[in-house]
Amino acid sequence: MARTVFEKSDAITRVAEVFRELGFEGASLFEITERTGLSKGSLYHFFPEGKEGMAAEILADVDGWFVREVFEPLERDEPRAAIAQMWRTVDSYFRSGRRVCLLGAFALDETRDRFAKPIRLYFKRWIEALDGALVRAGADAVIAKSLAEDIVGSIQGALTLARALKEDAVFGRTLARLQQRTDAVLPPHRKS
């Protein structure tokens, strides 16, 4: 029987999905090995700090993805295009509401105190990046700040609601309404 060799990135992806499904507290080492196909030895090789180290690396990995795919484009790219891309990226990443936000789940779990700083920085950066893009696109600064907070909070709430109701379409409908609200606060787009 051939032995499967995993890379650390594979381990991060697999363990992240276990944490998404079971939460940090619910993900015992037994559950992690069963669901990932990784041996205890492999887990300790990749994550010598144990389960807490797994969670810290996974949160950093998710944050890094959002920095590259959502936050930096909102901060540097043409704002309307970056905001439009954010809707598509978020919908794809969260699999149209079928995938839990790991940072959001950790924020609601007993783990929130252990990982308070990365969780807080993730949400703060998203709000600030979106706020900045809205202002650059022509939104009033006060409205942009409030809307950015509403958007990030509503995305998190829609993920929870879609899961609770077992109705993924809730997420898509929420994104569509948020998109309409965003379009309503921006001045008409003038083409150069």
From TrEMBL:
InterPro entries, alphabetized: Homeodomain-like_sf (IPR009057), HTH_TetR (IPR001647), Tet_transcr_reg_TetR-rel_C_sf (IPR036271), YxaF_TetR_C (IPR054156)
Gene3D superfamilies cross-referenced by the UniProt entry: Tetracycline Repressor, domain 2 (1.10.357.10)
Keyword DNA-binding on entry: yes
SUPFAM superfamilies: Homeodomain-like, Tetracyclin repressor-like, C-terminal domain
UniProt keyword terms in alphabetical order: DNA-binding, Transcription, Transcription regulation
Taxonomic path: Bacteria, Pseudomonadati, Pseudomonadota, Alphaproteobacteria, Hyphomicrobiales
Location of the Transcriptional regulator LmrA/YxaF-like C-terminal domain: 81-171
Domain HTH tetR-type: 16-58
Coiled coil regions in record: none
Species of provenance: Afipia felis (Cat scratch disease bacillus)
UniProt GO molecular function: DNA binding
Protein name (Swiss-Prot/TrEMBL): HTH-type transcriptional regulator YxaF
Listed Pfam families: TetR_C_13_2, TetR_N
